[in-house]
Design goal:
By secondary structure, this protein is of the alpha+beta class. Strands 18, 19, 23, 24, 25, 26, 29, 30, 31 and 32 form a ten-stranded mixed β-sheet that branches. β34 and β35 form a beta hairpin. α5 packs antiparallel against α6, α9 runs antiparallel to α10 and α11 packs antiparallel against α12. It is globular, with a radius of gyration of 28 Å.
Length: 880
């Protein structure tokens, strides 16, 4: 029997709101093999009974079960329900389980609300919390009520005494004056006949607080504001809207201070019980003031809101040698601490969050730089309290207890991980405990740095959306989590923040060049660094590989083209270099005291120029832009030829004798085939020169293992991955790391620290190696010609003394899984291929196949392989 197990929208199980009809994909469930869809029927209705169908595709002869785009006219603030059924060669399924989505505000002229500020101009230098509220009356029975809200700053939403939604740090961080997300909530069960109240608690956040290592505040504006529109649909068919306007009232809240870097100060004596309920006396509150803001930049948030996730108890309550009482939660993370305590009015609680202990076992704060990461609570009355901050988050494993009423106990404190909500899609485990811990560390690095934007670190006075970190980690992230909507939102900001000429800022949102009083301040060197700015092209390509999606390519096409054209305009004879370049950042072959690796910028920049141009030409073809495909393919060939003539001698020797130079030349396919073997041999020599260790930085490290295994040296790739002494991935694991560090030797073997000015212990960039672990060690990859795992390449490469590996990935079609076990020369392999997809199954260094489970293996290009349809297969073969 065949059935549809799940119908998704934009690859998500749930969507908050949309203003364009989502793409649909569905998973097919069957115990049979080789299940192929022949046709489908998709229906959309306004009720889950499907009595009022607004769209019916009818039977569509198509094998597509992902990226299905349909068109119908949506009404504002309406819920729609979807279902699908399919036909195969032998069966017609029942309709799938129903999915639903809500439409946002479909037309700009439907916005009746305005932005209202609870603050005056005199509060520009303050970072306190403010309440804002409106009491209104409902006459009649409500059929549906939807609330659309956002803020300039951060906000929490309340209605009739109930907190609305489980999002945190809303509306997130965007390029506010060009792009602002609004959140959508169904409040039908909260609204009532008679008197009601909508209330919001608003804080400074990224919008107004101090952000960026320049220490500037009011980067986007000097007053926070709230915006809301309640859409009420009555049983009698009439509609009403309640909107923010200057009739709303505001007051300061108990949050005396709150900023992203420095934490929060909460004085409970300033609480106003009932402020979010009807009947509260707000006569002493000030009138909110309307402020000007362009509502055309509003866009519905679809998903990936920041939320609380894992809950971690205290692992140890201990005193340091210096006498500080500290909490150890056992895991470096981003989030905050929930505190439960009893005290008297005026009692205080103060915590300082930090990442690590120094060599003597004492509190280490230096690497936080100016960030205070402080939580402070003052009791307003006698009794028990539960508190956690609202408008900040911390990067920490430890917390120092500075003040606490009575004797603190471990059970008084609980850590909550806080990050953007993304389904976990990748699973990995193997027989090597160190690699299993590395996998966990990479995953926690992702969680910690995906707090609405892909940041570099979650703890110091930075936490910025560095494009280079995001670019090199994007494919790894997309194996581990469902990142599609997360990156789609961030890439929209990237396009918004590009220079008029197409340059890409170093960080997105571009806080380094943004000021409230100017639309664009572009100073020397603050944009367009190779590998960093190439995120504009490489991340859409990475998402295409994992999702097979071209809608995002179409959306980002103008941004990508502008970036390629920017490089072309500023290149000299196809050699690209521009202003400040980071090069192979923090590579170990850098000169003493420098962060810049030894690989010349001309080489690094031109390599990325070629690579991004090739990818852009490929994506042009995918969306039918054949003339652009021809134009940019020709440009790529010219750049590649220039690279070869400039950075290789006549005999094929590279002019730059660094590991990274050879890695880029190999992985980006920039050397002629006749010199490929010489290039790989020289890379091996450079590796041997360092006793098998890497000395690469941000540019070379992500591709090192790929450059080796992709050129016949899987053995050396495993040896590199499994190194345990400095510098290596497992050195950090051996040193007790629970996340990936910024520097290979963030903590040295003697416990001393790398320079405190830039020494994050939660920096995901070097975790990009997990892409290799999934694609090569786990053997799960996609065919570029049939991306999104419509056709998978399942080719696990065995080595390193690893005796077993299990990897799986939840693709748009279903789970792809590879498990292998090796004993001596015997290999057992179990593979799972989602229905309505196919795969090429390759056996690494196979001598003979003992059990083929119905697959027709044959030798092709020196590898024993077979084509397979969907299903589960168990294979046994002997290594050569």
């Amino acid at each position: 029997m065949i059935r549809i197990s799940e119908l998704r929208m934009n690859y998500q199980k749930e969507l908050m709101a949309v203003t364009e009809v989502p793409q649909f994909n569905w998973m097919i469930d069957s115990e049979a093999r080789n299940v192929r869809q022949k046709a489908y029927q998709l229906q959309i209705a306004k009720e889950d009974t499907f009595q009022e169908i607004v769209y019916d595709s009818g039977r569509i002869e198509s094998e597509e079960s992902a990226h299905v785009e349909e068109e119908f006219e949506m009404e504002t603030a309406s819920r729609y329900f979807g279902r699908v059924k399919i036909w195969t060669e032998s069966e017609e399924t029942e309709f799938s389980p129903v999915c639903s989505f809500l439409s946002g505000v479909m037309n700009q002229n439907e916005w009746k609300a305005c932005f209202v500020s609870p603050e005056g101009e005199e509060q520009a230098e303050e970072s306190e919390g403010n309440y804002i509220r409106k009491e209104f009356e409902v006459f009649g029975r409500v059929k549906r009520a939807y609330l659309f809200t956002t803020a300039l700053g951060l906000y929490q939403l309340w209605m009739n005494g109930e907190k609305i939604g489980n999002e945190e740090l809303s509306p997130g961080w965007t390029s506010y004056r060009k792009h602002l997300l609004y959140q959508t909530h169904d409040v039908t069960e909260v609204i009532r006949e008679g008197k009601n109240v909508i209330g919001a608690h608003v804080g400074a956040g990224w919008y107004k607080g101090v952000m960026g290592f320049t220490g500037n505040r009011n980067n986007y504006g000097n007053r926070t504001a709230f915006f809301g529109q309640l859409w009420i649909r009555y049983e009698d068919g009439t509609e009403e809207v309640v909107v923010t306007d200057p009739t709303w009232k505001s007051s300061r809240s108990p949050v005396v201070f709150a900023e992203i870097y420095d934490g929060e100060i909460y004085d409970a004596s300033l609480e106003q019980p009932g402020w979010d309920l009807p009947g509260f006396d707000d006569s002493g509150w000030r009138q909110a003031e309307e402020i000007s803001f362009d509502k055309t930049v509003l866009r519905a948030q679809t998903t990936s809101a920041v939320m609380e996730h894992e809950i971690l108890p205290v692992k140890e309550l201990f005193r340091t040698p210096e006498g500080d009482l500290c909490l150890d939660f056992g895991q470096n993370m981003a989030g905050w601490i929930h505190v439960h305590a009893a005290g008297k009015a005026g009692d205080e609680i103060e915590l300082r969050c930090f990442e690590t202990l120094d060599a003597a076992g004492n509190v280490y704060l230096d690497n936080l730089r100016k960030a205070k990461q402080r939580l402070y609570y003052r009791f307003g009355t006698d009794g028990e309290i539960d508190y956690h901050p609202s408008f900040t988050y911390q990067g920490f494993r430890y917390a120092k207890i500075v003040r606490f009423p009575g004797e603190p106990k471990a059970e008084n404190f609980t850590a909550y991980a806080v990050y953007s909500d993304m389904e976990e899609t990748g699973q990995f485990s193997c027989s090597h405990p160190g690699l299993n811990q590395l996998h966990k560390n990479v995953g926690w690095g992702l969680r910690s740095n995906f707090v609405d934007v892909p940041t570099d670190c979650p703890q110091r006075d930075e936490r910025l959306g560095w494009t280079g970190d995001a670019e090199i980690f994007a494919r790894t992230a997309s194996y581990l989590r469902n990142t599609y909507c997360f990156y789609e939102k961030w890439l929209h900001d990237l396009a918004c923040d590009q220079t008029p000429e197409g340059g890409v800022p170093h960080v997105i949102p571009d806080i380094l060049n943004q000021r409230a009083e100017d639309d664009w301040l572009m100073s020397q060197g603050d944009h367009s660094a190779a590998a960093w700015a190439d995120a504009a092209v490489i991340i859409p390509w990475s998402l295409y590989l994992n999702y097979g999606d071209t809608r995002l390519i179409r959306k980002q096409y103008g941004s990508m083209k502008a970036w390629i054209d920017f490089m072309r305009a500023h290149s000299d004879g196809n050699i690209w270099n521009f202003r400040l370049q980071f090069g192979d950042w923090v590579a170990l072959d850098a000169e003493e005291g420098s962060y810049f690796g030894a690989t010349p910028n001309d080489l690094t920049c031109t390599a990325y120029y070629a690579y991004s141009t090739r990818l852009f030409a490929r994506m042009s073809g995918l969306i039918g832009k054949t003339e652009e495909e021809k134009e940019y393919t020709a440009l790529y060939e010219q750049i590649r030829d220039t690279f070869h003539r400039t950075f290789l001698e006549e005999d094929g020797t590279m002019t730059a004798q660094t590991q990274t130079a050879h890695i880029l030349a190999l992985h980006f396919d920039l050397v002629e085939e006749k010199y490929r073997q010489k290039t790989i041999n020289r890379l091996l020599e450079l590796l041997a020169k360092e006793n098998g260790h890497l000395v690469t930085g941000f540019v070379g490290t992500p591709y090192f293992c790929h450059a080796l295994s992709g050129n016949g040296h899987t053995k050396e790739a495993y040896e590199l991955l499994l190194k345990e002494d400095f510098p290596s991935w497992l050195y950090q694991v051996k040193m007790g790391a629970t996340t990936v560090w910024e520097h290979w030797d963030g903590i040295r073997p003697d416990g001393t620290m790398w320079s405190p000015d830039m020494n994050s212990f939660n920096h995901y960039a070097y975790g990009a190696v997990e892409e290799w672990m999934f694609r090569v060690m786990g053997g799960i990859d996609t065919d570029e010609e049939h991306a999104g795992f419509r056709h998978s390449i399942l080719y696990p490469q065995i080595g390193g003394g690893i005796t077993s590996t299990l990897a799986s990935y939840q693709s748009p079609y279903g789970r792809v899984r590879v498990e292998w076990k090796v004993s001596g020369s015997e290999v057992e392999e179990t593979i799972e291929i989602p229905h309505n997809t196919t795969a090429t199954v390759k056996l690494y260094q196979a001598d003979s196949v003992q059990e083929d489970d119905g697959l027709a293996f044959e030798e092709k290009d020196g590898i024993i392989q077979a084509e397979a349809g969907s299903g589960v297969y168990r294979i046994r073969y002997r290594l050569s």
